[in-house]
Specification:
Layout lengths: L2 H4 L3 H11 L9 E3 L9 H17 L3 E5 L9 H13 L7 E3 L4 H13 L3 E4 L3 H7 L17 H12 L9 E4 L14 E5 L13 E3 L1 H11 L4 E5 L6 H11 L8 E5 L2 E3 L6 H9 L14 H7 L3 H11 L6 E3 L1 H15 L2 E2 L1 E2 L2 E6 L7 E7 L9 E7 L1 E5 L3 E2 L9 E2 L3 E4 L4 E9 L5 E8 L19 E2 L2 E2 L4 E8 L25 E8 L11 E4 L3 E5 L9 E6 L4 H8 L1
Helix pairs in contact: 3-12, 8-9, 12-13
Pfam families: tRNA-synt_1c (PF00749), tRNA-synt_1c_C (PF03950), tRNA-synt_1c_C2 (PF20974)
Protein name: Glutamine--tRNA ligase
GO molecular function, one term: ligase activity
């Protein structure tokens, strides 16, 4: 067995086994089937990477098929967002399809079901039908309408389609087995009446197919070879196969449903219903809020497509549901950004630094490396002057011997610039430091090659020239929930765990090279973390979102707790 074969996940093993048993490789076809009733989240990203990854591995087409069978919840906005997300992740679908493409075909098949005695119109209330379903340990009871004549069923079904009945008066049910141990096989609903406008078919249809009916048949029409679903659809597989049994023609590709486990992400939720609740109740600023687990939120926060693909590949495919720590996703983001993000200087909690022996009015432009991980990234020039901003935490008036940043009487290097020594401070009436005064070693400029420049100094801090600084709004994002599994306890409202400190908006000062930064561009603010230009940026204001820190600070906090 080769190394590659040993590393196959169980889905790939199924495909390899099918091909070994005679299934033609050129008949392989996959699909990603989102319902356009919300924005895609990180769980969908794993499914996208699985299906499109299989397409790339086996050189097989992958369809993007929208499961648009519920017009009450679906919108064109969601269709457009889903397409954008899939493309942004780096994938291209073979064909764009919709379940609504097959509404007529599905209807015609349903008519044939009625004629073959495999379906009937039930006119009971949903409450009565629920009572007759039975329980997992008790069989169901048959509907009083189960033995309607074929003629009556055909008449009622056509009139349902024509919009003659109010919603809830009739449904079409498959006639299977009310005593089945699988409750999904107890005469499942195939069609319900919905007088709702559909974003593609308009008002042409008054009845809409249920997911279980439409999904497998759509797979069949598109000749999907392997229909991959999450584990909650395992019990649906028997029904999926039963529906196919009724329409399958020998010689055609018969889709095979197989299930994999959801990968839940810690400190977030991935239920579309709960994500919608967060949006509608104003806990976040829309579906693309950078705190959301949506792909659009992750994109806005500054995550890269490569990092999300790598995350999906790292967690892999499994048969058991488990909780993945969000720090693994953040690690993948950090790892990718480290390779590609230009290094720049920004100060987010400023205190004024005055170099008292630097000539007033003088300025010089110093060379700074753009990315030590990328030789081709080159260098840029940053302005230096007598008055700078440094981070407040980079100075301590009374420091111990283990403090290697700026303090009185000790030296520190300014990144790409000079060695300075703390001399004195100015304070306000409340004792807060307002200015730090220092002196610089005139011969110590970085890269100058002088003896002074080569001196070993333990601490290096970043800075921004005050007269050249660019003001920016900086949004510091943290995890949206304080609990690692906010929706795990059914007795506690998941919103109880919303982190009140998940967003802090501050004013930052940036080096002038960032004045023309455009939305979507990503940078490393040296010693602070990775940041991305937000779409709210305009000619009057530049806005940065914090993507991720340089290291995992949550791990330290949680270990202390």
């Amino acid at each position: 067995m080769s190394t590659e074969e040993r590393s196959l996940n169980f889905i790939e093993q199924i495909i390899e086994e099918d091909m070994a048993n005679g299934f033609a490789k050129d008949k392989l076809r996959f699909r990603f089937p989102p319902e356009p009733n919300g924005y895609l989240h990180v769980g969908h990203a794993s499914s996208i990477c699985l299906n499109f990854g299989l397409g790339l591995r086996y050189n097989a087409p992958v369809n993007l098929r929208f499961d648009d069978t519920n017009p009450a919840k679906e919108e064109q906005e969601y269709v457009d967002a889903i397409k954008k997300d899939v493309e942004w992740l780096g994938y291209q679908w073979a064909e764009e399809r919709y379940a609504s493409d097959y509404f007529q075909e599905l209807y015609d098949w349903a008519v044939q079901f009625i004629k073959n005695g495999k379906a009937y119109i039930d006119s009971q209330s949903s409450e009565d039908m629920a009572k007759q379903k039975g329980t997992p340990s008790q069989p169901g009871t048959e509907s009083p309408f189960r033995n309607r004549s074929v003629e009556e069923n055909l008449d009622l079904f056509e009139r349902m389609k024509n919009g003659e009945f109010p919603e809830g008066t009739h449904v079409l049910r498959a006639k299977i087995d009310m005593t089945s141990s699988n409750m999904l096989m107890r005469d499942p609903i195939m069609y319900r009446i919905l007088h709702k406008h559909h974003h593609r078919t308009g008002d042409a249809w008054k009845i809409y197919p249920m997911y279980d009916w439409a999904h497998g048949e759509s797979d069949y029409v598109e000749e999907i070879s392997h229909s991959l679903c999450t584990l909650e659809f395992l019990m649906h597989r028997e029904l999926y196969d039963w529906f196919l049994d009724q329409i399958y023609t020998e010689g055609k590709v018969r889709p095979k449903q197989r299930e994999f486990a959801r990968r839940n992400l810690s400190h977030t939720v991935v239920s579309k219903r709960k994500l919608l609740q967060l949006v509608q109740e104003g806990h976040v600023n829309g579906w693309d809020d950078p705190r959301m687990s949506t792909i659009s939120g992750m994109r806005r926060r500054g995550y890269t497509p490569a990092s999300i693909r790598n995350f999906a590949d790292t967690i892999g495919i499994a048969k058991r549901t488990n909780l993945i720590d969000v720090s693994l996703l953040e690690f993948c983001v950090r790892e990718d950004l480290n390779k590609i993000a230009p290094r720049v200087m920004a100060v987010l909690d400023p205190v004024k630094l005055v170099i008292t022996n630097y000539p007033e009015g003088k300025e010089e432009w110093l060379e700074a490396e753009n990315n030590p991980e990328d030789e081709s990234a080159g260098f840029r020039e940053v302005p230096f002057s007598r008055e700078l901003y440094i981070e407040r935490e980079d100075f301590m008036e009374n420091a111990n011997s283990k403090y290697f940043r700026l303090t009185l009487g000790k030296e520190v290097r300014l990144k790409n610039a000079y060695i300075i020594k703390g001399e004195s401070v100015l304070k306000d009436s409340e004792g807060n430091i307002t200015e730090i005064h220092c002196t610089y070693d005139t011969d110590s400029r970085s890269g100058s090659g002088t003896e002074a420049s080569l001196r070993k100094i333990k601490g290096t801090i970043h800075w921004v020239s005050i007269q050249h600084a660019v003001e920016a709004e900086v949004r510091i994002y943290d995890r949206l929930f304080t609990h690692e599994a906010p929706d795990a306890d059914k007795d506690v409202d998941f919103k109880e765990y919303i982190n009140p400190n998940s967003l802090e908006v501050i004013k930052g000062y940036l080096e002038p090279s960032l004045k023309s930064a455009e939305a979507g561009e990503r940078y490393q603010f040296q010693r602070l973390g990775y940041f991305c230009v937000d779409p709210d940026t305009n000619a009057e204001k530049i806005v940065f979102n914090k993507t991720v820190g340089l290291r995992d600070t949550w791990a330290k906090l949680e270990s202390k707790e």
